[in-house]
Write a structure and sequence with these properties.
Structural class: mainly alpha
Strand order of the largest sheet: 1-2
Pfam families: Cytochrom_C
Protein name: Cytochrome c
Number of helices: 12
Strand content: under 5%
Largest sheet: 2 strands, antiparallel
Organism: Thetidibacter halocola
Number of domains: 2
Oligomer: single chain
Keywords: Heme, Iron, Metal-binding
Distance between the termini: 55 Å
Helix content: 25-40%
CATH topology of the largest domain: Cytochrome Bc1 Complex, Chain D, domain 2
CATH architecture of the largest domain: Orthogonal Bundle
Shape: globular
Radius of gyration: 20 Å
CATH superfamily of the largest domain: Cytochrome c-like domain
Order of helices and strands: HHHEEHHHHHHEEHHH
CATH class of the largest domain: Mainly Alpha
GO molecular function: electron transfer activity; heme binding; metal ion binding
Length: about 290
């Protein structure tokens, strides 16, 4: 009985600590109070971030119909991209800019629930406030889609959303992975933040977090079909010119052409400036072998 009296308070303290540690971390709304986003600038942020690649309707030829629905299988279940159109009921049209920033950079819904990290907020957390505001302004110009989001297919224990808060304690970090000189900062911003290249090109540990010790060293394809290639110099010998040309045209130095999900990535990068493609190529050439 005496042991029970000691264990019960200890269990309550541990439960309270766990509840506190897994609580959602929100942005300070005051950061965005004076920001007026520019939709024209937001279009390039939208393109570089690959928003349409995941969130456009799978049965539609319109990449700006952001009703979601695409399925993304993983070891933890199958995740479905949600509706992020400006529809106020089924999309994000009723959100504020601060709530949008919570979702994109912290993985937190307006109701305070954790989003699964299939949504690459671990990369977007490095996005600047100005780019967030511009992106938000651009999304408001897109056509609303009155289509409900599909539920994820995730079993126990991964369906316990609160546990994602503990995962974030381990893996949600706004620091840069690669230390670079000033001339490579634009490329780093595009690769590590907006384009979230490491989400596919970096292997993960048993909990699904990126193994930054093997940054961009290649990884199994989450779909279970094949692998995502390494971009580190011990495995990847393309020149910076080759990389930039591939991102513009989809053609490799071996006269092959892009395929799979990378085709959507190339489609996005082809719409960016030549300077941005060159910046990405320069960053890739600065990578170290794991």
């Amino acid at each position: 009985m005496r042991l029970l009296k000691l264990l019960v308070p200890a269990a309550l303290v541990a439960a309270g600590a766990g509840f506190w540690l897994t609580a959602p971390d929100r942005v300070d709304p005051g950061r965005f109070a004076a920001l007026a986003g520019d939709a024209a600038s937001g279009e390039s942020v939208f393109t570089a971030s690959g928003c349409a690649s995941c969130h456009h309707a799978p049965e539609s030829d319109d990449n700006l119909a952001l009703s979601g629905g695409q399925a993304f299988p993983s070891d933890f279940g199958t995740f479905h991209a949600p509706n992020i159109s400006p529809d106020p009921e089924h999309g994000i049209g009723g959100w504020t800019l601060a709530q949008f920033a919570d979702a994109v950079t912290r993985g937190v819904s307006p109701e305070g629930a954790h989003y699964y990290p299939a949504f690459p907020y671990t990369a977007y957390i490095r996005m600047t406030d100005g780019d967030l505001a511009d992106l938000w302004a651009y999304i408001q110009t897109l056509p609303p889609q009155a289509v409900p989001s599909k539920p994820h297919e995730v079993g126990f224990p991964f369906n316990i959303r609160r546990s994602v808060g503990g995962w974030k304690q381990l893996y949600l970090d706004d620091g840069w992975v690669l230390d670079v000189p000033p001339e490579l900062e634009r490329g780093r911003y595009l690769v590590e933040a907006l384009a979230h290249c490491a989400e596919c090109h970096t292997p993960r540990d048993a909990l699904g977090g990126l193994d930054t010790a093997r940054w961009m060293a290649g990884a199994p394809n989450p779909s279970g079909r094949g692998t995502i290639p390494s971009l580190t110099p011990d495995q990847f010998d393309w020149s910076a010119t080759d990389i930039a040309y591939y991102l513009e045209t989809g053609f490799t130095p071996d006269f092959d052409s892009v395929g799979g999900h990378m085709a959507a990535v190339v489609s996005n990068f082809s719409q960016l400036t030549a300077e941005d493609r060159a910046a990405v190529a320069a960053y890739v050439k600065a990578l170290k072998a794991p």
